[in-house]
């Protein structure tokens, strides 16, 4: 298992250097970083040249890239053009909100999506199967921002009106004096998980139906094993590998910052922060956020690979024997 994990970690090295090199080269394409950061202070030619020297921009590009990697290794992601604050401090404040939202959405996706897929496969062609197929089709076709706005209107505005303020859900922000953090999390988490839940249900249904038709499943039934033991003890492990792949990649995407969902609900996560930075041309935040997202996605991918080895030992043994 250790060799299996080591090989996966080695594969991440070129990915990391490739992404960081692209980000570094983009700084030269998007404009002069000195003028972007220092504005009018860089108008004087002498001051401009001094700032270039102080920031290391008068060095060859490969030297600048090496300095960039060294700074990353020390947690230095640059300074925000708009606020003058270190990007690392800004992301430390915002990323926990994105993590909270992402894990809440994944919980919804696992329990609702996987559960609906199992029910749909076991109750094939029943009314439950029809309901799951219909609802997943609607969710896949509906834009996330539109669903979020509908949830805001119904649960935040109409429910408040119909119940005279007795019951409704907050539609903006992460915390307030009236509502706790969990109440603020409900609508954004459902919105973020909606499309992914539909896909997870479809993948779970198709994979489980395929596995339930295999010879070893019929043999297990012929031996007298109960339906539940055959389903959860034999069929689920093989059927879960594609589902785990999808959920793992989806978690990585959610940790990358759900810009649409966070913007609709004014959720103070990294996605909303990057959206504001893009509008303000605050490229250090965009680049710093991308680096943090890169690490998060690589860690999630590693965990997904490890889960394969537990679900199917042949993957672990095959990787160890190479």
Describe, in plain words, how this protein is organized in 3D:
The structure is a single chain. With 322 residues, the chain is mainly alpha-helical. It has a domain at 92-275: MetI-like (MetI-like fold). The chain is built from 14 helices and no strands. It has helices spanning 2-29, 33-38, 45-55, 61-73, 87-122, 127-141, 144-162, 181-212, 215-222, 227-255, 259-264, 270-279, 283-311, 313-321. The longest helix is centred in the first third of the chain and has 36 residues, at 87-122. The chain is flat and about 85 Å long. The protein starts with a helix and ends with a helix. The model has no long low-confidence stretch (mean pLDDT 81).
Short description:
By secondary structure, the protein is mainly alpha-helical.
CATH classification class of the domain at 92-275: Mainly Alpha
- From the 3D structure, determine the CATH topology of the domain at 92-275: MetI-like fold
Low-pLDDT residue intervals, each spanning 5 or more residues: none
Averaged pLDDT: 81
Looking at how many chains there are and whether they match, the oligomeric state comes to: single chain
Estimated share of beta-strand residues: under 5%
């Amino acid at each position: 298992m250790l060799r299996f994990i080591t090989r996966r970690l080695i594969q991440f090295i070129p990915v990391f250097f490739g992404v960081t090199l692209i980000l570094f080269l983009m700084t030269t394409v998007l404009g002069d970083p000195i003028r972007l950061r220092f504005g009018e202070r860089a108008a004087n030619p002498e001051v401009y040249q001094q700032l270039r020297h102080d920031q290391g921009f008068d060095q060859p590009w490969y030297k600048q890239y090496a300095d960039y990697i060294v700074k990353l290794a020390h947690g230095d992601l640059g300074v925000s053009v708009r606020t003058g604050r270190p990007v690392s401090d800004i992301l430390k404040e915002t990323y926990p909100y994105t993590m909270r939202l992402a894990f809440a959405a994944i919980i919804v996706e696992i329990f609702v999506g996987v559960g609906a897929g199992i029910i749909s496969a076991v109750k094939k062609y029943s009314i439950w199967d029809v309901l799951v197929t219909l609802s997943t089709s609607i969710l896949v076709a509906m834009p996330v921002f539109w669903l979020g706005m509908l949830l805001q209107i119904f649960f935040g505005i109409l429910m408040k009106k119909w119940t005279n303020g007795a019951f409704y859900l907050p539609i903006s922000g992460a915390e307030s004096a009236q509502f706790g953090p969990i109440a603020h999390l409900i609508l954004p988490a459902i919105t973020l998980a909606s499309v992914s839940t539909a896909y997870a249900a479809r993948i779970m249904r198709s994979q489980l139906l395929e596995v339930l038709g295999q010879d070893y499943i019929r043999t297990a039934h012929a031996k007298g094993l109960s339906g539940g033991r055959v389903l959860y003890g034999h069929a689920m492990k093989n059927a879960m590998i594609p589902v785990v792949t999808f959920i793992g990649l989806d978690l990585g995407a959610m940790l990358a910052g759900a810009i649409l969902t966070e913007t609709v609900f004014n959720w103070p996560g990294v996605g909303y922060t990057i959206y504001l930075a893009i509008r303000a041309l605050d490229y250090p935040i965009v680049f710093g956020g991308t680096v943090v997202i890169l690490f998060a996605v690589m860690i999630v991918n590693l965990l997904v690979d490890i889960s394969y080895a537990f679900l199917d030992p042949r993957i672990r043994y095959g990787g160890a024997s190479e």
